[in-house]
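Saturday, quiet lab. Running sequence design on the structure tokens for the scaffold JK sent over.
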């Protein structure tokens, strides 16, 4: 209604205001749209609009970001990153904080999950491990110490774990970094260089390698029941590098499995068949001890099986832990497993641990 047109009764001409019938003469006026109906219609329209925008936002794919292109203008942006895990995961049970590092070929970024999100990932078993392919969406942070991404919703993390390749330990090289492998061997040593790291040295016929089990993995997947030297085990793990040398890092303590069948790590050989061409290989030999004597770095004796004789070197850390070292005297029958070495044109067999020395007949 125009501003200069007042609501008047068309019959008597008097001012009637918002009434739908004249209070003076009773004349009915043409129906007018009520203010309440306008408000309800506006509210419904706004609700439908917001719902439509929400559905559109759900269907709209998140922008895929390249790590190397992230700049300060993207701080607090929400985006998606795809890459592979090159470090971690690390987990702090006190603060309930989980983190790992992704690389996509253009750069690296640290991904963080806090409190309930971290706990949800841990309880569902969807924590990524070294070598896993990952797609993650979250809030980008650009700070002086570098770029990071905060995972806000557990379902915005997708983890794809490659199938493990069957490999011999000696075939694994630094070029296999982040590749997932499966190996079988015999446990040589178990040690803890410092609290939070357990190293299991595994050996097969081609060589030996450390399996590194970090405390973070135990917090995330359960406590480790370490195998003992001499156990035969199968390990699935990703290859990592420590000071340029490959080692194996399992995603879970359950990826270290005891085997019922024994894994033989060395071929039994007649001593006379061993040549300089066998240097670096593992062999098992049996024979009679001759010329046994200690030396400055351990204990040395000759082993004779009738086809030839060879020098056996027991380093002090091996000899001192033998349960029956006093039985290693001349005339004893023993079985030795060790690596063939050549020292000053003399062939030697060097056991790696006390479990490689077995006295058959004192």
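Result came back. Writing it out in full:
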């Amino acid at each position: 209604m125009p501003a200069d047109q007042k609501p008047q009764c068309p019959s008597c001409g008097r001012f009637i205001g918002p009434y739908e019938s004249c209070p003076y003469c009773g004349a009915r006026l043409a129906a007018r749209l009520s203010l309440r109906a306008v408000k309800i219609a506006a509210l419904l329209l706004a609700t439908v609009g917001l719902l439509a925008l929400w559905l559109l936002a759900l269907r709209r794919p998140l922008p895929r970001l390249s790590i190397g292109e992230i700049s300060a203008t993207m701080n607090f942006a929400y985006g998606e990153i795809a890459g592979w895990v090159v470090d971690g995961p690390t987990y702090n049970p006190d603060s309930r904080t989980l983190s790992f590092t992704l690389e996509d070929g253009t750069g690296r970024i640290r991904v963080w999950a806090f409190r309930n999100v971290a706990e949800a990932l841990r309880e569902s078993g969807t924590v990524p491990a070294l070598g896993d392919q990952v797609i993650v969406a979250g809030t980008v942070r650009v700070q002086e110490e570098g770029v990071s991404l905060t995972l806000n919703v557990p379902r915005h993390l997708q983890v794809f774990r490659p199938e493990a390749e069957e490999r011999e330990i000696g075939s694994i090289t630094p070029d296999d970094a982040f590749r997932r492998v499966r190996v079988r061997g015999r446990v040589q040593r178990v040690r803890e260089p410092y609290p939070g790291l357990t190293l299991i040295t595994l050996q097969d016929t081609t060589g030996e390698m450390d399996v590194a089990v970090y405390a973070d993995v135990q917090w995330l997947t359960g406590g480790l029941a370490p195998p003992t030297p001499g156990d035969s085990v199968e390990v699935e793990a990703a290859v990592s590098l420590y000071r340029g040398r490959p080692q194996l890092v399992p995603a879970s303590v359950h990826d270290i499995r005891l085997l019922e069948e024994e894994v033989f790590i060395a071929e039994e050989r007649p001593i006379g068949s061993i040549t300089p061409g066998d240097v670096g290989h593992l062999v098992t030999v049996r024979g009679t001890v001759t010329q046994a004597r200690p030396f400055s770095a351990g204990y040395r004796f000759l082993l004779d099986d009738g086809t030839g004789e060879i020098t056996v070197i027991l380093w002090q850390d091996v000899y001192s832990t033998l349960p029956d070292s006093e039985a290693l005297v001349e005339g004893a029958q023993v079985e030795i497993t060790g690596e063939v070495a050549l020292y000053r044109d003399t062939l030697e067999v060097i056991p790696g641990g006390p479990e490689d020395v077995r006295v058959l007949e004192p």
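Notes for JK: Residues 91 and 216 are 5 Å apart (CA to CA). The chain has four helices and 20 strands. Ask whether to fix the surface positions before the next round.
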